[in-house]
Amino acid sequence: MSADRKAVVLLSGGLDSSTTLAIAQAEGFDVHALSFDYGQKHRFELEAARKLAEVAGVSRHVIVSLDMSQFEGSALTSDLAVPKDRSLTEMESTIPITYVPARNTVFLSVAMGWAESLEASDLFIGVNAVDYSGYPDCRPEFVRAFETLANLATKSGVEGTAKWKIHAPLIQLTKAEIIRRGNELGVDYALTHTCYDPDDEGRACGRCDACLLRLQGFAQAGLSDPACYRIRA
Amino acid sequence: MSADRKAVVLLSGGLDSSTTLAIAQAEGFDVHALSFDYGQKHRFELEAARKLAEVAGVSRHVIVSLDMSQFEGSALTSDLAVPKDRSLTEMESTIPITYVPARNTVFLSVAMGWAESLEASDLFIGVNAVDYSGYPDCRPEFVRAFETLANLATKSGVEGTAKWKIHAPLIQLTKAEIIRRGNELGVDYALTHTCYDPDDEGRACGRCDACLLRLQGFAQAGLSDPACYRIRA
């Protein structure tokens, strides 16, 4: 593969997307990172995304504003309380209210548009179907359906000048495996932001689904989590 | 069907989407209209969308801002010149530079998110595969692929509480048939904006692909176009 083959990488600023970015670079892609200001309450992740993109030395980092808080229904964008202290069994059995309707579909669609204008046809997304919160748009069948769509929705796909590929390199990894892989690639997890419900200083709660999965992942990887928590779980 | 079954209708402010809205209402749907401020140069269409939504008496009209002009490559969002005076054969043979990468995919994705928060699963889009400008995301196979995606990407689709349907009622109609149908349903086409390259007063150029297809449609329907042109074609 040419060393300057461009790819658009979705970068939330969290652990999974920063590891995905490092994997894309390790595979030789010229990374263009894309983040969204979508009315999320945990806006510290955007600052994290900025730092991570800078440290990784990506070619370009774009933050697109898209106000999804106009649409009610998710605890990530409204005043609904973020659930705390749920067991892994609870996480796996229901789709929680932190689910943002259509989020990954919207993010991939915009990434596809940017990629097409760059004459690229590779997208990276850090979805994970193992240690995840039960979101429908994190599953392999969703990723495959989007790939099919991309080849029908774009000028390059239809004209046959590109074969679109949605890379989801974490999809079958456990959180511990993701952390080990990122560690090998030199990801500085101190820069990442994971918590759905940080305090005003950006410190993590240690009790939401995202924090609990992260902490469990570091424990299982035998590594110490460098993130800043307001309560050590 | 229950008279209050909700649907999200993509409303650009043009002829096709305003006819689609009227069809959704005629089918008994409680219409929630969605427009996008995506950095388009022909911003008069947003004012048109506002008036059309108001006149139609929709339950809610939301304009979502999403700045796609950061991504280069389309004459609709950049300084590239809008092509003029092309023949229908030219329009049909190539995808023009007015193509905005991934536009309909992005619009449908956001519509899907809003619909899911409304507990709706019906989306309407006024794409047309007959008298169209050769855009890949206006074809039946694109619409079907998005429907498949919607059923995999959403909580309601995965839990089986909804079967998503992407309604594209214009997809097999000629422009003349669309205009006749809208006329029967009482659409006021004087309120619609079609031109890709209006002047400062919002008057249509009469020469871009969109104007030419519109004018031909009215001629073939045997009706007079009430739009305001700066040059009568």
SS strand fraction of chain A: 5-15%
Largest interface: A-B, 45 and 45 residues
Q: In which order are the strands of the major sheet of chain A placed?
A: 3-2-1-4-5
Let me know the largest β-sheet of chain A.
5 strands, parallel
- Which shape of chain A, going by the Cα principal axes? globular
Structural class of chain A: alpha/beta
The CATH architecture classification of chain A is 3-Layer(aba) Sandwich
Count of runs of 4 or more consecutive helical residues of chain A: 8
Rg of chain A is: 17 Å
Instruction: Please report the first level of CATH classification, the CATH class of chain A.
Output: Alpha Beta
In the CATH hierarchy, what is the superfamily of chain A?
A: HUPs
Secondary structure: helix percent of chain A: 25-40%
| N to C succession of SSEs of chain A | EHEHEHHEHHEHH
Please describe what this structure looks like.
The structure is a homodimer of 233-residue chains. Chain A is globular, with a radius of gyration of 17 Å. In chain A, strand 1 (6-10), helix 1 (15-26) and strand 2 (30-37) form a beta-alpha-beta unit. In chain A, strands 3-2-1-4-5 form a 5-stranded parallel sheet, with helices on both faces. The first copy, chain A, has 233 residues and is of the alpha/beta class. Helix content of chain A is 38%, strand content 11%. In chain A, helix 7 (175-184) crosses helix 8. Chain A has one domain: Rossmann fold.
